[in-house]
């Protein structure tokens, strides 16, 4: 009797499971309100076209210092640590050899292959330019030149582009003196593009080294 039970129980369980497996599925009815009968509306704004500039945008990090340096890096190199432009400027922030030497960096190959060193150099250069421009920051921040509100971050970005000395001349001439880099970007452009970032916590330093 026990042997019959041991044999029959697995057969019964298997039969039950097989009956569920081969049971015809009930047709699932989709409510009319959920059916798609025509193309859905695209959420992209009407009368707008998608272009390459919209696909290449810097990371949005607000008006913080990180937002400032990443936006500037995107403008300079698309944020690429390992690039050299046609004029020989290096890395994520496109430093020239002369500027690097002022901060104690003499090995271009080492610099190009060291992202941490590049970040340190950027921070050091901001502190150096802030020292050079300290009187102009105090005098001109809040003023308007050529329709552009002068901010500390705009001045420091322009100094990165054209040098702090040229930024001084631009400010003290009230915009009459302006210079452009080899690609046509001028001081006024950087003053406007990089205005309004919070760089207040960067301490100014005289002749800092990396």
Strand content: under 5%
Radius of gyration: 31 Å
Q: Which overall shape is indicated by the principal axes computed on the Cα atoms?
A: elongated
What's the CATH architecture name of the domain at 63-193? Answer: Orthogonal Bundle
- Would you tell me the overall average pLDDT? 82
Low-confidence stretches: 21-25, 38-57
Count the helices. How many? 10
CATH topology of the domain at 63-193: Lysozyme
CATH class of the domain at 63-193: Mainly Alpha
Number of strands: 2
Strand order of the largest sheet: 1-2
Order of helices and strands: HHHHHHHEEHHH
InterPro entries: Lysozyme-like_dom_sf
Protein name: Peptidoglycan-binding protein LysM
List the helices and strands and how they pair.
Layout: H1 2-21, H2 52-55, H3 65-77, H4 97-102, H5 108-112, H6 115-132, H7 134-140, E1 144-145, E2 148-149, H8 152-162, H9 164-172, H10 187-193
Antiparallel strand pairs: 1-2
Which short descriptors sum up this protein?
210 residues; mainly alpha; elongated
Please characterize this protein's 3D structure.
InterPro entries: Lysozyme-like_dom_sf. This is Peptidoglycan-binding protein LysM. The chain has 210 residues and is mainly α. The chain has a domain at 63-193: Lysozyme. It is 48% helix and 2% strand. It is built from ten helices and two strands. It has helices at residues 2-21, 52-55, 65-77, 97-102, 108-112, 115-132, 134-140, 152-162, 164-172, 187-193; strands spanning 144-145, 148-149. The chain has a two-stranded antiparallel ribbon with strand order 1-2. A hairpin with a 2-residue loop joins β1 and β2 (148-149). α8 (152-162) packs across α9 and α8 packs antiparallel against α10 (187-193). It is elongated. The termini are far apart.
């Amino acid at each position: 009797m026990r042997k019959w039970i041991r044999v029959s129980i697995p057969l019964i369980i298997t039969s039950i499971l097989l009956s569920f497996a081969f049971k015809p599925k009930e047709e699932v009815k989709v409510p009319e309100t959920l059916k798609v009968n025509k193309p859905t509306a695209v959420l992209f704004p009407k009368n707008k076209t998608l272009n390459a500039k919209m696909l290449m945008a810097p990371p949005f990090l607000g008006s913080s210092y990180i937002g400032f340096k990443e936006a500037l890096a995107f403008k300079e190199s698309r944020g690429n640590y390992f690039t050299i432009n046609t004029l020989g400027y290096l890395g994520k922030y496109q430093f020239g050899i002369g500027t690097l030497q002022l901060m104690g960096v003499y090995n271009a190959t080492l610099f190009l292959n060291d992202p941490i060193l590049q970040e340190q150099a950027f921070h050091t250069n901001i502190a150096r330019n802030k020292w050079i421009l300290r009187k102009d920051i105090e005098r001109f921040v809040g003023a308007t030149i050529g329709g552009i509100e002068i901010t500390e971050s705009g001045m420091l970005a322009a100094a990165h582009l054209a040098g702090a000395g040229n930024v001084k001349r631009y400010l003290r001439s009230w915009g009459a003196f302006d210079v452009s880099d080899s690609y046509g970007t001028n001081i006024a452009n950087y003053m406007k593009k990089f205005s309004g970032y919070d760089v207040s916590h960067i301490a100014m330093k005289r002749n800092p080294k990396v």
